[in-house]
Amino acid sequence: MNPQNAFGDLIENYSDQAPGFFYAKDQSGRYLFANEEFAAFADCDSPNQLKNKRDDDMPWREQASFLQEIDHKVISAIDFFQEVVDIHHPLYGTCQFLTTKKRLLDNNKQVKGVIGMSIHLLGKNNFLGKYFYQKGRLYLGDAFAQQYLTPQEIRVYKTVLMGYSAKEASVILNISRKTIEYHIEQLRKKTASHNKGELIRKAHEHGFSFMIINHSL
């Protein structure tokens, strides 16, 4: 299975290095794969033990219906989900995650399920004040040498996080594909990323993805 969207880079290059948890489920809610960190949180010895299990089989089974409802919405209606989600674990207590989910597509762009990434937060407020807007620019702080994103770069970054191709983004933003590609290259330079997968990873890892997603196109 090879999802044809920006999350495909994460599958191929970052599934074992993704910050926090990285996983995918089929349309019936059965896990297809995950990284080692997610398997450990699920009390499994390896990602292979997760295959074909559902959230009803996990330590957070009491929230299975809630999580399945999100998956169903992503598959059938909204395509993209990002919110802070509380997960109640019997060993670790209540854990807060910045959770992103998107449709999982096959080579023929048919929906096969959902793919997700969940970043553990001590609280969403950890990121507030670290990144801020000024005159339409998003300043990225010390981790990125005080670089900032322009309003147009923010909009392009949002299309990357939502899994759109450069061609699709050019239609959505009503600018040329060449301009989209130029802005993606600038984003890669400013965040020291090598590809779209790493652009997505950096935004989640450093906690500013929710600010970009909430920015209007």
Sequence-ordered SSE layout with sheet pairings:
Layout: H1 7-13, E1 21-26, E2 31-34, H2 36-41, H3 64-78, E3 80-89, E4 93-105, E5 111-121, E6 132-134, E7 137-139, E8 148-149, H4 151-161, H5 166-173, H6 177-191, H7 196-205, H8 209-213
Antiparallel strand pairs: 1-2, 1-5, 3-4, 4-5, 6-7, 7-8
Helix pairs in contact: 1-7, 4-6, 5-6, 6-7
By DSSP, the count of extended strands is 8
Order of strands, widest sheet = 2-1-5-4-3
The CA-CA distance between the termini, in Å, is 31 Å
Beta-strand level of the residues, as a percent range? 15-25%
The CATH superfamily of the largest domain turns out to be: PAS domain
Coarse structural class: alpha+beta
Q: Which bin fits the share of residues in helices?
A: 25-40%
Instruction: Report the average pLDDT across residues.
Output: 82
Question: Which CATH class of the largest domain?
Answer: Alpha Beta
Overall domain count: 2
Shape: globular
Number of helices: 8
Reported CATH architecture of the largest domain: 2-Layer Sandwich
